[in-house]
Amino acid sequence: MWRHVAANALTVFIVLLIALAGLVGWGQSQYRAEGPLAAPICLEVRPNMRMARLGDDLEARGAVSNATIFRLGADYAGKADDLKAGSFLVPAGASMGEIVDIVTRGGRSTCGTEVVYRIGVTGQEVQVRELDPETNRFETILEFDPETEVAEGYGEVRDAADTRYRVALAEGATSWQIVEALRKAEFLDGEVAEVPPEGSLAPDSYEVRAGASRAELLAEMAARQADRLAEAWSNRTEGLPIDTPEEALILASIIEKETGVPDERGTVASVFVNRLNRGMRLQTDPTVIYGVTEGRGVLGRGLRQSELRAETPWNTYVIDGLPPTPIANPGLASIEAALNPEATDLIYFVADGTGGHAFARTLDEHNANVVRWREIEAERGNQ
User: Fold this and answer.
1) What is the CA radius of gyration of the chain?
2) What is the tally of structural domains in the chain?
3) 370 lies in a domain?
4) Alpha-carbon span 36 to 92, nearest angstrom
């Protein structure tokens, strides 16, 4: 009799194991399967939120079919305690496993309201953007110059707990301009003891939190620029008339200020490298302007003949070789152009009226280009 009971119990146990295995397998398939979400959603994960509560929210919004499977799957993956606070874009059809990955991987938030504080060469601009889950693209809803106005509705955005902030630094801004702009950014905190060395800050986009330290943000900018310069220096063309990474940064800053046309950077770099190789002076106006302003704002007018002749450390019409410091903060493309210039025999260039430049190999060619540029200027002056 006991053998019969034991056999029946064993049979029941095996059936239960099979059923459990089947249930686990079904749960795993549900966890990995395409989800029921028909359109992308912006998912808010609040600080100290638990995975179980998030699962309930997702089920209520139709993003997952079963909150319990979502929670158990996160437990099984070892990610139940790894939730990151923020706003995250959940794409249509995302599986439970994909959603868990999205909300636990960290990094910048991917949707919601974002304030972008743009620091340019001539001033600042504030943009308030919202991500449209349908298109997965940010749409600008407010835009204004913080020096002269504050757009209606900005205060409400600024005071919202889930608003994210981004500082976008343009190529060619000086360190003084950057520090002054950061001091005016009301969502940042802390003092800046001194202006960082010219050229040492990386033009880029930086995500920050409300109340972030200005000094720490500047340190991040400096670290990023140092990394970029080190990598570009290690991959430089051999035989350049540049002896140190600092000299490369100086040349890159001149290239940055000379052209805003991306495709021209390598050609402009070749002109300066050819001039340095021949012992010719660089004779570039942006260095003269920096000698006048020392990076403290925009000149706002044309250069005077007396300024072109003035003996400042940066005036490359007067000094030989490179100036002693960069004249702005160059972007990565200009750094790479300085260290990997095009191979040309060009010596001269002048504006061509289209935003770019006309290049020349000889002084006669250059003089002809200058005449054409003067004609363009005269035509514009008569309009």
Assistant:
1) 30
2) 3
3) no
4) 8
Q: Domain end: 194, 229, 264, which one? A: 229
Helices (H), the chain: 2-32, 51-60, 67-76, 96-104, 154-159, 175-184, 214-234, 245-258, 265-278, 285-293, 305-309, 332-339, 363-382
Coil, strand, or helix at residue 37? coil
Strand pairing category for 357-360 and 137-144: unpaired
Domain co-membership, 95 together with 127: no
Name 357's bridge partners.
351
Judge if 277 and 338 occupy the same domain.
yes
For the entire predicted model, the pTM comes to 0.75
Which residue segment(s) compose the domain that 76 sits in?
26-104
* Residue 35 CA neighbour count, 13 Å, CB half: 28
User: 229: which 2 tokens?
Assistant: 């310069």
Residue reference for tokens 């390598």:
266
Residues 69 and 175 in one domain: no
- Where among 54, 73, 104 does a domain terminate? 104
Sequence-distant (6+) residues with CB within 8 A of 83 are 45, 49, 50, 51, 54, 103, 104
Pick from 119, 78, 86: nearest CA to 102? 86
Tens digits of pLDDT across the chain (383 residues): 555 555 555 565 565 666 555 655 655 777 888 989 887 777 878 788 888 899 898 898 888 889 888 989 888 888 888 888 877 878 788 899 998 898 888 665 666 788 999 999 989 999 998 877 666 677 888 898 988 888 888 888 888 777 888 999 999 999 999 999 999 999 999 999 999 999 999 999 998 888 999 999 999 999 999 999 999 999 999 999 999 999 999 999 999 999 988 899 999 999 999 999 999 999 999 999 999 998 898 888 888 999 899 999 999 999 999 999 999 999 999 999 999 999 999 999 888 877 789 899 999 888 888 888 888 877 776 65
Same domain, 67 and 131: no
The reply to whether 341 and 260 lie within a common domain is yes
Residue 139 shares a structural domain with residue 174: yes
